[in-house]
């Protein structure tokens, strides 16, 4: 199996159509008496869309993204997009442990780019150049220019695809894996399925065990699970519709750029550590880059497939490789007990609750997270 270079190349026709659609946008009135109370705030959307139409320079962002080495590989007959950046190491330094960084939903490879800089060129950020890593950042199957596989899109299927990328395509015999959200779950599956090749895993969302039957729940575990159920009653509408009627909502979002923006921005605000101020964590250019990538690739519907196929997932085996966790600060992770992760992982080497950085931590706290990744994976790779 081979891989070939790839460039992001959004046609003028697509961009002209996008601007025309944005110009014809109709906005709803706000529900409730507070901004964001009923979801994406119409006033914020008006401002964001105005900038999208008249201030956002996609061609400049496209050029920045294309400065990175992009590729596509065929795995199981389906194409997978990824970025691969070699570490800048001193002459004579030992080969590093390669790392694969996997994003979640509603995200993309763009989320990982601040980590790529810091992990491949640590000297630029005051780190040790001998600790530079080779880094691979895939677009998960169904996202952007990565095609869906044959059969259900399970976490195990995604893990198999990423493992083949790292081993058969790129030739790595041993590697480390990091991820959050869906990418974190896939990272856990990589550690469970391939302990001989996966040196260790790092996640910002600790895993659940395949079953809680091994021993009774502690009070802390029960309190967390109860709180999760309560939170889902206020936040779970998006996953309910994507898991049961994905084609219905996808039909609206693939036809309306502002509808797409609303669907994504709502989660960037809800799940990041922004204290109610979305742009304290993400500038508009970053948000619109991610939204434009979804629009140009037409992949919002396929990004829902892992929700629709959720019931096809089988119980995950225990994770026996060394594991590290830098727990995100977001409502769904509040008071997450380490005991739950210990039910799933037999060798937790590092547990950190920094109190900052949410669902999109690589974008929100890249220095913090890059330091945690470097310390953990370097410790695994030292003689």
TrEMBL record:
<dbReference type="InterPro" id="IPR029058">
    <property type="entry name" value="AB_hydrolase_fold"/>
</dbReference>
<feature type="active site" description="Proton donor">
    <location>
        <position position="307"/>
    </location>
</feature>
<dbReference type="GO" id="GO:0004301">
    <property type="term" value="F:epoxide hydrolase activity"/>
</dbReference>
<keyword id="KW-0058">Aromatic hydrocarbons catabolism</keyword>
<dbReference type="Pfam" id="PF06441">
    <property type="entry name" value="EHN"/>
</dbReference>
<feature type="active site" description="Proton acceptor">
    <location>
        <position position="359"/>
    </location>
</feature>
<feature type="active site" description="Nucleophile">
    <location>
        <position position="181"/>
    </location>
</feature>
<keyword id="KW-0378">Hydrolase</keyword>
<comment type="similarity">
    <text>Belongs to the peptidase S33 family.</text>
</comment>
<feature type="domain" description="Epoxide hydrolase N-terminal">
    <location>
        <begin position="4"/>
        <end position="112"/>
    </location>
</feature>
<dbReference type="InterPro" id="IPR016292">
    <property type="entry name" value="Epoxide_hydrolase"/>
</dbReference>
<dbReference type="InterPro" id="IPR000639">
    <property type="entry name" value="Epox_hydrolase-like"/>
</dbReference>
<dbReference type="InterPro" id="IPR010497">
    <property type="entry name" value="Epoxide_hydro_N"/>
</dbReference>
<protein>
    <submittedName>
        <fullName>Pimeloyl-ACP methyl ester carboxylesterase</fullName>
    </submittedName>
</protein>
<dbReference type="GO" id="GO:0097176">
    <property type="term" value="P:epoxide metabolic process"/>
</dbReference>
């Amino acid at each position: 199996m081979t891989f070939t270079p790839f460039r992001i190349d959004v046609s003028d026709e697509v961009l002209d159509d996008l601007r025309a659609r944005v110009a014809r946008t109709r906005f709803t009135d706000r529900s409730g008496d507070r901004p964001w109370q009923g979801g994406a705030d119409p006033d914020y959307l008006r401002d964001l869309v105005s900038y999208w139409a008249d201030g956002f320079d996609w061609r400049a962002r496209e050029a920045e993204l294309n400065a990175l080495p992009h590729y596509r590989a065929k795995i199981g007959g389906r194409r997978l997009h990824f970025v691969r950046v070699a570490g800048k190491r001193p002459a004579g330094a030992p080969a590093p442990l390669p790392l694969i960084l996997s994003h979640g939903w509603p995200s993309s490879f763009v989320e990982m780019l601040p980590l790529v800089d810091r992990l491949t060129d640590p000297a630029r950020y005051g780190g040790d150049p001998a600790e530079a890593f080779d880094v691979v950042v895939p677009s998960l199957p169904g996202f952007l220019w990565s095609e869906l596989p044959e059969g259900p899109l399970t976490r195990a299927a995604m893990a198999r695809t990423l493992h083949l990328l790292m081993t058969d395509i790129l030739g790595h015999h041993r590697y480390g894996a990091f991820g959050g959200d869906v990418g974190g779950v896939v990272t856990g599956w990589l550690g469970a399925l391939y302990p001989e090749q996966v040196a260790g895993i790092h996640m910002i969302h600790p895993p659940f065990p395949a079953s809680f039957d091994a021993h009774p729940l502690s009070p802390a575990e029960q309190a967390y699970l109860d709180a999760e159920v309560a939170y889902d009653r206020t936040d779970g509408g998006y996953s309910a519709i994507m898991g049961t009627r994905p084609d219905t909502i996808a039909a609206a979002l693939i036809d309306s750029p502002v509808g797409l923006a609303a669907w994504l921005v709502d989660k960037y605000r809800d799940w990041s550590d922004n204290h109610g101020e979305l742009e304290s964590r993400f500038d508009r250019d970053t948000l619109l880059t991610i939204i434009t990538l979804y629009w140009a690739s037409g992949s919002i519907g396929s990004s829902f497939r892992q929700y629709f196929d959720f019931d096809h997932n089988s119980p995950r085996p225990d994770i026996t490789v060394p594991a590290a966790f830098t727990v995100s600060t977001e409502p769904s992770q509040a008071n997450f007990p380490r005991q739950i992760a210990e039910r799933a992982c037999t060798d937790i080497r590092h547990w950190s609750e920094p109190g900052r950085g949410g669902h999109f931590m690589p974008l929100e706290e890249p220095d913090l997270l890059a330091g945690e990744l470097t310390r953990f994976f370097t410790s695994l790779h030292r003689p």
